[in-house]
Amino acid sequence: MRVGLDVGGTKTDAVAVTPAGEIAARVRLPTGWGPDAVVQTVLDAVALLSQEPGLAGATFSSIGVGIPGQVAPGATRVLHALNLGVDELDLAAAVAPALGAPVRVENDVKAAALGAYALRGTTGSMAYLNLGTGVAAGFVFDGELWRGARGTAGEVGHVSIDPRGPVCKCGQRGCIEAFAGGAAVAERWGRPGALPVRDVFDAADAGDADARVLRDGLARGVASAVRVLVLAADVDVVVLGGGLTALGDRLLGDVRTALAASASDSTFLRSLRLDDRIELLPAGSPAAALGAALVGASHDPLEALAHG
Amino acid sequence: MRVGLDVGGTKTDAVAVTPAGEIAARVRLPTGWGPDAVVQTVLDAVALLSQEPGLAGATFSSIGVGIPGQVAPGATRVLHALNLGVDELDLAAAVAPALGAPVRVENDVKAAALGAYALRGTTGSMAYLNLGTGVAAGFVFDGELWRGARGTAGEVGHVSIDPRGPVCKCGQRGCIEAFAGGAAVAERWGRPGALPVRDVFDAADAGDADARVLRDGLARGVASAVRVLVLAADVDVVVLGGGLTALGDRLLGDVRTALAASASDSTFLRSLRLDDRIELLPAGSPAAALGAALVGASHDPLEALAHG
User: Smallest Cβ distance to B163: which of A124, A147, A162?
Assistant: First the structure.
């Protein structure tokens, strides 16, 4: 049995996966803040899993952890996981002795890409576009995660699509993330609320002009990201996931409208049939935790690093 | 001995390549217009090569042809090679009987990418950004050409970077190609001349305001293409080639200035060290013909289609 964990900014999702790739158990728990608490969260998640009905006596052959930060070469250390209060942490070294199994760490978006690919159960090429606090993508080609030369493939959030657009936290103007990142939208909205992007959609529906600008910009940013992913990498499909996709068809409908508008102006874009290539990851999908389990099960870390 | 041909809009470049990958002979000849003349050009090029000193009695084991058009699955037929007056042509079927060797066809930009990679003689990942009539790129990862799901990977010329930018022939507004494609620049310049983009650079140097706008836009378009290629695919290096690179350091200097300007605003972009990742293909490089020879030498067409 393999274990996969998706350590998110507020909660951690953990699954136990059979050798056949089926999810045998799943638990969720709050994520602690800071390096020590993150280590404890990982240990608690594995302990909770082992107490699940049906897993009595099961042994875990590998642990994979998806985490919102940069993963250093070697797949044990995480850097700059700012949403977890972690600047640098050798997570594998910290938890492996207590867990008695090899531990590998992966960037959460890349883990989710691998999990989404496995859940789709098809072959070919896929981009997973994560719409959360920020905007980033992961690529899976023929079943293998593809990281690029320095592990930053898929950073389409920082492609600028408008020289007069809003300033991005990265310092550029008009980045896709400045239009479509949850944090950027919330900051520009500027009103208190637990779910600011949902508030923006509600206010736009009610006719608020500022909200309409933000909502249109969000759709435009996501549509641009889809175009960049397909034009640059010619993936079969772009799967949309992440916190913002809780808006479901309200978001997807806007994105389809934005894609249709660009296709109506361009025979070339129309020929790419972008509208047919986008899919929404179902709400509550275990893609990220499942993908982490698949990363954790890679036998040779160096081989896995080289090929994805 | 393998043969590679780069069939361009005005001239055809042909090389004979030894099993060790060395160029043993090279000839150039004008390209004919229309399907029959293109077929004759290919036959003439191979005949000329066989008359080169040192190739007496040599046999050609494979022929690869790079051509500016879409290549249909199967790597024998070319579609929409508009600059050659060819709408659809089974080039391999037309020339193979007379040549007595297997013939494969490849899009010219993808062939040039493979050739540029071979000429660099290093490992890792590379994008080849072709700056010619249009703007398109090819990717080589670990020595293999990467085409994407439908053979259109690298079409970064049609990423829009400015919603208020010039209308592209594809129908969108503000495409990279509308700023940096040779045809688009020539059309916006609108004055007669054999080398319109060089004229634009000369006029800009002389203080012409219209020319300065076009020249700045060209650098901005190329810099954007480099950013898209590195952000999306995280390639080690972007090699610039194509007709516009005859401008050499005049073009490269502008592109470096545009990249430096965006990096000065953004710590994130600065960390990507884009300026260190760009290179100019030397003028007169046989990259495209050499790459075509490498494509032609692929033993299993289906395997070659699947992997590169």
Answer: A162
What pLDDT shows up at residue A163? 96
Q: Using an 8 Å CB-CB cutoff, list chain A residues near B144.
A: none
- The partner residue sitting opposite A159, judged by closest CB among B164, B171, B231, is B231
pLDDT tens by residue, A129-182? 999 999 999 999 989 998 888 888 999 999 999 999 999 999 999 999 999 999
Cβ-based burial of A249 (10 A; exposed 0-12, middle 13-18, buried ≥19)? exposed
Residues of A in contact with B262 (CB under 8 A): 160, 172
What residues have CB less than 8 Å from B158, skipping those under 6 apart? Answer: A231, A266, A268, A269, B168, B170, B172, B175, B176, B177
ipTM, 2 dp: 0.91
Residue A134 DSSP SS3: coil
User: d(Cα B87, Cα B288) in Å, to the nearest integer?
Assistant: 22
Low-confidence ranges of chain A (pLDDT < 50): 300-308
- Name residue, tokens 């066809």: B105
3-class state of residue A146 by DSSP:
strand
* Segments in chain B below pLDDT 70: 299-308
> Residue B122: how many CB atoms within 10 A of its CB?
10
Best probe of the B interface among A234, A262, A265, A277, by most B CBs < 10 A, is A234
Q: Which domains does chain A have, with CATH numbers?
A: 2-108+285-307 (3.30.420.40), 113-280 (3.30.420.40)
For position B148, what pLDDT does the model report? 84
**Residue B152 pLDDT:** 83
**Residue contact A267–B153, C-beta within 8 A:** no
Q: How far is CA A115 from CA A22, A110, A211, A219, A293, in A?
A: 12, 9, 34, 25, 9
Nearest residue of B to residue A126, measured between CA atoms: B149
